[in-house]
Amino acid sequence: MSKRIIIFGAGGHAKTVVDTVEKAGIYEIAGLLDQRLSAGEQVYGCTVLGSDDWLASHAGTIDGAIVAIGDNWTRGLVVQGLKRKFPDLPFATAIHPSAQIARGARIGAGSVVMAGAVVNSDAIIGEHGILYPGTSVDHDSRIGSFVSFAPRCATGGNVTIGDYTAVAIGAVLIHGRTIGEHSVIGAGATVVSDVPPHSVAYGTPARVVRPRAAGERYL
Ligand SMILES: CC(=O)SCCNC(=O)CCNC(=O)[C@H](O)C(C)(C)COP(=O)(O)OP(=O)(O)OC[C@H]1O[C@@H](n2cnc3c(N)ncnc32)[C@H](O)[C@@H]1OP(=O)(O)O
């Protein structure tokens, strides 16, 4: 019998996670948990089961969870809350069958790698990361936890990205650069220099345009 997981969240990002999990074919989706919706509602063919209370009474029947909330900071808060309430609940990883994970590459628990994404040789993606379709993270890169890549981002080799940083759609980072934690690299940016933590940077070449507090909105 396949392992059963629940997905936290039922919005647009959750739909992409549902699709990735279904295509990967490793886990059965027991349902979605989202306190904004009523139990019994259907989202993308999955049943909304309720909120955390449902998990408290069904924990023994569930093999894992994925938090499918696109905003990195909010996803982090939900993951931390779950770890406190359900310390034995493992986080599942979903990798679309058309994604390519090279030799030596590692994908952290709770991370989702979508269609056509590439994680090249010995690159490491931390926990609860998101690689939207067509993103490519190249060899030996070190990507922190709660980091997101929107569609079609590309890094060269040996790039380092700190926790909670968001790389927006179509951004390109040349090899060997370091992006600090809690930063946002804007849509279409070409990063040729290091970007400090807590910064918003965009443009070609990318420049830091303003500081950024942890949790500030970017979507
Ligand atoms: C599946 C999915 O949907 S995944 C999500 C996909 N979406 C994304 O990845 C987009 C995320 N958002 C971005 O990348 C944005 O560029 C941000 C958040 C980095 C910047 O947004 P803000 O700082 O709020 O910029 P704001 O909209 O206020 O614009 C300020 C100025 O900067 C310009 N600007 C904003 N973003 C960019 C950019 N990426 N590159 C160049 N210029 C930009 C604006 O045109 C504006 O210029 P103006 O003052 O001359 O009119």
From TrEMBL:
Active site: H139 (proton acceptor)
Residues at which acetyl-CoA binds: I169
InterPro entries to which the protein is assigned, alphabetical: AcTrfase_PglD-like, PglD_N, Trans_hexapeptide_repeat, Trimer_LpxA-like_sf
Residues covered by the PglD N-terminal domain: 4-80
Keyword Plastid applies: no
Alphabetized UniProt keyword annotations: Transferase
Pfam families hit by this protein: PglD_N
MF terms in GO: transferase activity
Residues bound to substrate: G70
Record-annotated site: Increases basicity of active site His: D140
PANTHER family noted in UniProt: ACETYLTRANSFERASE (PTHR43300), UDP-N-ACETYLBACILLOSAMINE N-ACETYLTRANSFERASE (PTHR43300:SF7)
Identification of the protein by name: Acetyltransferase
Species, as recorded: Paenibacillus pinisoli
